[in-house]
UniProtKB/TrEMBL annotation:
Organism: Planosporangium thailandense
Subcellular location: Bacterial flagellum basal body; Cell membrane
Recorded family membership: Belongs to the FliM family.
Coiled-coil spans in chain: none
Annotated InterPro entries: CheC-like_sf, Flag_FliM, FliN-like_C, SpoA-like_sf
Keywords, ordered alphabetically: Bacterial flagellum, Cell membrane, Cell projection, Chemotaxis, Cilium, Flagellar rotation, Flagellum, Membrane
Membrane disposition: Peripheral membrane protein
Record's protein name: Flagellar motor switch protein FliM
Main localization, broad class: other
Transmembrane segments: none
Domain annotation Flagellar motor switch protein FliN-like C-terminal: ranges: 227-292
Organism phylogeny: Bacteria, Bacillati, Actinomycetota, Actinomycetes, Micromonosporales
Length: 301
């Protein structure tokens, strides 16, 4: 049984979590994954000596929690490091496909397989096959990034895999995978933060037309103009002072608290806790005011 529908159709769009992948990003990944699928097919066919096929179905963005929830249990979940890229990738396919592949590796003809974790003899066989598959993943991604995929471990229960936070965005490529009479939907999951900077590269401005570049510059000017008119809370402050809790508790109306601010030192003009100017207190008519001045010599750097 496939765990995801193969047919194309309308997909719900969550405006609270818009996709960050453009058509150019999807196309770049599609080329890489189609290359990977062809090489994967070749490895399975030559290694297992059985009719095999791997075909790219879709590339979608989910949260890590949504991806994990979509997986069956048990299943084969290979955790993969993608040095020098940060984070952990996941290559996942059904346990029945894994058992069928091992059966063919040992000279069997396939057929119904037991649903159980791999034995100590079967695990190295699958790991050896995986090492060849990851080599082809490295080759397929050469146009995007230079990576060194390494198998970091195999799990069977998706809930035991900690490869990201629940709300972290991930890019999931789904493949139709067939080995003999067995088939499943296999997936490759990459954290968005791992691959998105490589998809961006330095090519964004090159791909813009003159009209698009002019629209971007106009939007930037409008944004700057809008920010310049936003009201901010500004404070004029003395230097802070330290008091013990018992002194604070004992304060009464009429008490005098001595400030540590030197009379010759200007006050700090701050916004959002950041000092951006210095000033001396004064008045303008009947209103209190301050005059912006140069900082004191001991602060002047």
């Amino acid at each position: 049984m496939n765990r995801r529908s193969k047919g194309a159709g309308p997909e719900p769009y969550d405006f609270r979590r818009p996709t960050k992948l453009s058509r150019e990003h999807i196309r770049t990944l599609q080329i890489a994954y189609e290359t990977f699928a062809r090489q994967f097919t070749t490895i399975l066919t030559t290694s297992l000596r059985a009719v095999s096929q791997v075909t790219l179905l879709s590339i979608e963005q989910f949260t890590y929690d949504e991806y994990i929830a979509s997986l069956a249990s048990p299943t084969i979940i290979a955790k993969v490091s993608m040095e020098p890229l940060p984070g952990t990738a996941i290559v996942e396919f059904s346990l029945s496909i894994a058992m069928t592949s091992i059966d063919h590796l040992l000279g069997g003809s396939g057929g119904p397989q037991p649903e159980r974790p791999l034995t100590d003899i079967e695990t190295p066989l699958l790991q050896s096959l995986f090492s060849r598959v990851l080599g082809e993943l490295r080759y397929a991604f050469e146009g995007i990034a230079s990576i060194r995929p390494q198998l970091a471990g195999i799990e069977y229960n998706p809930q035991f895999v900690q490869a990201g936070g629940a709300s972290d965005p991930v890019i999931v490529a789904s493949f139709e995978m067939r080995v003999g009479a067995e088939e499943c939907v296999a997936t490759v999951c990459l954290p968005l933060g791992m691959i998105f900077p490589k998809l961006q590269g330095d090519r964004t401005d090159v791909q813009l037309s003159p009209a698009q570049r002019a629209a971007r510059e106009a939007a930037h000017r409008n944004l700057v103009a809008g920010l310049e008119s936003v009201p901010l809370d500004v404070a004029v402050r003395f230097q802070p002072m330290h008091m013990r809790p018992e002194e604070l508790i004992s304060l009464r109306p009429g008490d005098v608290v001595t400030l540590n601010h030197p009379a010759t030192q200007p006050l700090a003009v701050t916004a959002a806790g950041i000092t951006f100017a210095h000033a001396v207190p004064g008045s303008q008519g009947s209103r209190l005011a301050c005059l912006v001045v140069a900082p004191a010599k001991e602060e002047d750097r």
